[in-house]
Specification:
Layout lengths: L2 H61 L5 H12 L7 H11 L2 H21 L9 H25 L4 H6 L4 H7 L2
Helix pairs in contact: 1-2, 1-3, 1-4, 1-5, 2-4, 3-4, 4-5
Length: 178
């Protein structure tokens, strides 16, 4: 066999091995990123659901007609006792682990708004029609929508064509995500 043929075969083998290593590395990175995105999506959904369900349970508890200490106790129980075992505070802590800081910084005030609503609904003086309740619940729902939009944007991978068609420069996206 000639040395030239042997050299070409060796270079071909090196290219084949190199391409396999690179492909496997890229595939592994893509799978890891997908698992991370799936974990974030799960926690995002759990947090939004926990907050929404906690509000609904508290509203139902306050509307049952109990007064005084019984109403306060019912609302606080509704806030803390989630039948799905996804109490909002525990899922907020999960969110703190997986979410980027800009998402967590929006989720934390939302949770505090929920606590304020809890305290309002525990009072006999507050009903769904009172101005005090409306002034607390309207910003709560707006914050929830803002957080959902932020979470959705975080989960969507940036694609060059969509960002360019929206007039967003790639360099602007890089700075906004940090």
């Amino acid at each position: 066999m000639e040395w030239g043929t042997l050299g070409v075969a060796a270079v071909g083998a090196l290219f084949g091995i190199g391409a396999t290593v690179i492909t496997d590395s890229l595939r592994s990175r893509r799978e890891k990123e997908q698992r991370w995105a799936d974990a974030k999506r799960l926690v995002y959904v759990r947090f939004l659901a926990a907050v929404a369900h906690a509000h609904s349970r508290m509203a139902m508890a306050s509307a049952r007609g109990a007064v005084g200490e019984a109403r306060s106790h019912a609302v606080h129980d509704a806030f803390h006792n989630d039948p799905q075992h996804s109490e909002a505070k525990s899922v907020l802590r999960e969110l703190g682990l997986v979410a980027p800081d800009h998402v967590y910084r929006v989720a934390l005030p939302l949770y505090e708004q929920l606590r304020s609503i809890r305290d309002l609904l525990a009072s006999d003086a507050v009903t769904f029609e009172t101005l005090e309740y409306r002034e607390a619940v309207d910003p709560f729902f707006q914050s929830m929508e803002d957080l959902q939009r932020l979470m959705r944007d975080d989960l969507q991978p940036s694609s060059g064509w969509r960002d360019r068609s929206a007039g967003v420069q790639p360099s602007a996206l890089d700075g906004a995500s940090r």
